Amino acid sequence: MTHPHPTPQAPQVTVRGEGRLEVDPELARLWLTVSARGVDRTAVLADLTRRNTEVLGLLRARGAAVGKLETGSVSILPEQPRRRKGEEARAYRGRVGITVELTDLTVLGELVPELADREQTQVEGPSWELRPDSEAYAEARRLAVAAAVRRARAYAEALGTTLGSLLELSDAGAAEPGGPRGHAFQRVSAAYAVEGAGAAPSLDLEPQRRTVTAEVVARFTMLPPAL
């Protein structure tokens, strides 16, 4: 795409504009590891299957509060990987990973202890996130465009003239601290293997607000200033 070159009769101004706002998170992500251990591989697999099914059932019982539920890697390995040839493994350990995305953050304080209180279950997270289509991203871009227009007008006014027309508007990048979508991670890691300990207490988890930024580059024509 070609653009007209600036001339004394059609001067141009190019500016950057940035939009920034803080918003409450819309999603929380947890990572679970369900384990089993024993001397018999088949029994370990059976225990792992049972515990995994129970955890998935607990999560599905939360209904719409659970947006996504994904099972990750599964492994059943001997605890003596360097044993001598022909020697039987003394024990086996099985693990399965589960990723949970919560859309209702109010259930988090009860759900984390409930999951962590289960036998051989480890919980990590939460990661505070925004939805991919969150209105916060669009609002940050609107703020960035408004900032670019204000800056361009300020330059034009300093020259004693006004803006003419918009020639180009490009996205200079939109990001948040901490990653492509700005995950804020609050580490709550727990593993329990105690049975009969009673109901798990509620855990007070304070969501971390997200900072959303957007940046644009805009190019305008100006009316020729009377210099």
Topology:
Elements lengths: L11 E12 L3 E12 L2 H20 L5 E13 L13 E11 L5 H9 L4 E9 L5 H24 L4 E13 L8 E2 L4 E3 L17 E13 L5
Antiparallel strand pairs: 1-9, 2-4, 2-5, 3-4, 5-7, 5-8, 6-9
Structural summary, described in words:
About 8% of the residues have low confidence. The longest helix has 24 residues. It is elongated and about 90 Å long. The chain is α+β, with helices and mostly antiparallel strands.
Put the structure in a nutshell.
The protein is of the alpha+beta class and 227 residues long. It has helices at 41-60, 108-116, 135-158; strands at residues 12-23, 27-38, 66-78, 92-102, 121-129, 163-175, 184-185, 190-192, 210-222.
Q: Main beta sheet, described?
A: 6 strands, antiparallel
- What is the rounded distance between the termini? 32 Å
| Helical proportion, percent range | 10-25%
Indicate the low-confidence ranges by residue numbers. 176-183, 188-198
Mean pLDDT: 84
**Tell me, what's the shape?**
elongated
SSE order in H/E notation? EEHEEHEHEEEE
Number-wise, the strands total: 9
**Number of helical regions:** 3
- The oligomeric status of these chains comes to single chain
Kindly name the structural category: alpha+beta
Portion in strands: 35-45%
Which structural traits does this protein have?
3-stranded antiparallel beta sheet, elongated, alpha+beta, 23% helix, 227 residues
